[in-house]
């Protein structure tokens, strides 16, 4: 077919129309595909977000748990904010989503409060327990009189001594030695029921040449007087006299350190605790002891165990095991039940004393253990484990202490 060029002049050619149609179709397909992709991304993104919120990455879950456990103020110190008044609504909401145990609400609230306030918590993890032990300090003066060849020691006072008695106080006095001689000792008076005693007593070591004095070590031992059993050591201080200017009286403040006989040398005791919140009772099972300190001349002991239930530093009830004759590794396996209402747990202490039976004189104390939510790190751990696992016997070894 022939087309007149003049007639067709100005009309688009067939090739141009074909190209235009192809471009139009391509654009339409692209727009449709883009819409489908955006819809897919929204759906997939929503599912991915939901999966993250449900499962959580390690970093995000750890961040949320740390936020509920601690709060970092501007000072930089970690403070446990669990169950503390004044927390934010967000933190309260997070706390409410925690799973609840089958134990009563009162037990749960009391348990969380005790676990939060007790020493030896996770905030203190990694620190030496001895660094938190405060045995108090003592003030004394030392000087030498060259004309009279006399060493003068003045015991002035002590501060912040720990309580050794059930009444929450101590009856402190001081023994003075010039080591290595331990045979000749001097003692202060006993200050009754006083954790900040003032002695102001002067002691003279007469006829002591200066050349020998500088070879001695002044050793002070603070003890708690006990009328019915052996005196309990509180702490000690030693100072080499060759490092002191003895030409005039020098006054010192020294922190008391644990006595050198140490708690480890007294042996260990294995016992279990079982708390039953529904019965309001704690079962104490004295299982066995090992490596007990020999208290008799024959190099052995006749051990038995006393268990005291204390409430607000008052003795409530006492029970004891049988005596095991001439044995440093006795096996007792005796259980005792104590009635303790849940609301009294925070003020309750279980005092366990390993004794050496003696027919001819008073019984000797081998070592003690104080179990409560405010005792030492090892004792607190056992108490917390007992609260956290009701109706289960939780066993643990304990070092006997003076």
TrEMBL record:
InterPro entries: C2_dom, C2_domain_sf, C2A_Synaptotagmin-7, C2B_Synaptotagmin-7, Synaptotagmin. Residues 89-99 have a biased composition (Basic and acidic residues). Pfam families: C2 (PF00168). Gene3D superfamilies: C2 domain. Residues 134-254, 265-398 form the C2 domain. CDD domains: C2A_Synaptotagmin-7, C2B_Synaptotagmin-7. Residues 52-105 are annotated as: Disordered. It comes from the Eukaryota. Keywords: Membrane, Repeat, Transmembrane, Transmembrane helix. SMART domains: C2. The chain crosses the membrane at residues 16-40. Belongs to the synaptotagmin family. PANTHER family: SYNAPTOTAGMIN, SYNAPTOTAGMIN-7. This is Synaptotagmin-7 isoform X7. It comes from Pogona vitticeps. The gene is SYT7.
